[in-house]
Amino acid sequence: MRRNLLAVLAPVLLGAAIFAAPTLAPVAFAQDANRPSVESAADAAKLRSVRNLKQLALAAQNFYDRHMSLPARCSVDANGKPLHSWRVFLLPYIEQNELYKQIRLDEPWDSEWNRQFHSKAPELFRRPGSSDPGCVYSCVVDKTAALQPAKEPGSQLGFRLGAFIDGTMNTVLFVERKEPVCWMDPNADLTLDEFLATVANAPDAVPAVFLDGRAALLPKSSEPSVLKAYVTRAGGEVVPQPPVAPPAAPANVNAKLAVQRMRSVQNLKQLVLATHNFLDSNGGAFPARCTVDANGKPLHSWRVLLLPFIDEGGLYKQIRLDEPWDSEHNRQFHSKAPAIFRRPGSSDPGCVYSCVVDKNAALQPATKPGVKTGVRIAAFTDGVANTVLFVERKEPVCWMDPNADLTLDEFLATVAEGSVYRDATVVGMCDGRAQTLSSAAKPEVLKAYVTRAGGETNF
């Protein structure tokens, strides 16, 4: 079986070659299982389980898009006693709305009425290839985990994305368990110790899905400290990353540039976090790439829209948003670019972070005057982990210029030239992750990273 598992993971490890000098933590990190090869019935079942988990994560993202919150781990009654599981709340998002309507949410999951649905678990919750009607997918029960009980009776809501400061890529959402349970039971999830034991006692690896929608295999040899770090949403741990993590500087990059690059990585992480906070405050929508006037002409950049979320609310209030970015009044702010937009270690006041201008990219222009929002998170069917949000550019531009972003061709050229780091370009992904793209990356792979719903296979 070990040979089969390695075959499952091999395409992913080979795909890491598009990134510059990745730092790997063998058997300690969750390895992506998007495109496994299948050599046995067990591997086939594992692949189907991975797909089930990805569908469940997408359902959770669609729940978020509707409610501006992740689902609660369970609803509660007036005494705080659990009533219904997160699985029930996801029913309308897995094409099970009719079943959802029949359940009495104001009664316990095991009331006389609700017990009739215990044997009607949707197929998505069952173990692939098994006749057992029980559910095999759980979240992790821990005060630091992704899903938490509702705070008040009648609510199905949990955390907003802004609470995940460790990054959505670094937080486990659901995991396959060994023993099936009743899908409606709000108490049938894994404690942290049970989660650790599930991985440790697995034949080889346990399918899981992260909050960003990335399905993964957690090897049984994973260190408990790493698994615990993956459970926390805001623990601040240093988590060993998959092959797409920010790599150490190669030998041909001098020490000054290496420090500069790591500071740029931090800038991009902060900008993506600011974008998530914008999303939380604006109905689940990303900022527009630019605002527009009545004629559709660009007025202001996404950088201006993020000011309140990077502690620059004072500057934001001074800008006249109903006037163009280069109006007589607004020109006075051209030289006042916040430090987060500038190249680390450089005295140039220009901005070095751009989005990519493309009809399939993450940020799109506002659709009408007065609108500051663009694409909603549910539109990222490729997964937020697979979509570039911001990129460090080589030549600085005015931070307020709504036209100063990279076209797709300019983005490809920037990566091919290696930006200022000779062999790699720093980018921020929509899930909050910063990484470097190798100058040797193939254009078709880079184009796949630009699209939010292209359906391409990135690895």
Secondary structure topology:
Layout lengths: L1 H14 L15 E2 L8 H27 L6 E3 L5 E4 H4 L7 H6 L32 E4 L1 E2 L30 E10 L8 E2 H9 L4 E6 L4 E5 L4 H8 L23 H27 L3 E3 L2 E3 L5 E4 H4 L7 H6 L32 E4 L1 E2 L15 E4 L11 E10 L8 E2 H10 L6 E6 L4 E5 L4 H8 L9
Parallel strand pairs: 5-7, 14-17
Antiparallel strand pairs: 1-9, 2-3, 4-6, 6-8, 8-9, 10-15, 11-12, 13-16, 16-18, 18-19
According to DSSP, the number of beta strands is 19
| Domains (count) | 2
State the end-to-end distance: 24 Å
Low-confidence stretches: 1-38, 241-253
If strands are numbered along the chain, what order do they take across the biggest sheet? 1-9-8-6-4
SSE pattern: HEHEEHHEEEEHEEHHEEEHHEEEEEHEEH
CA radius of gyration is 23 Å
Instruction: Provide the structure class.
Output: alpha+beta
Proportion of residues in helical segments: 25-40%
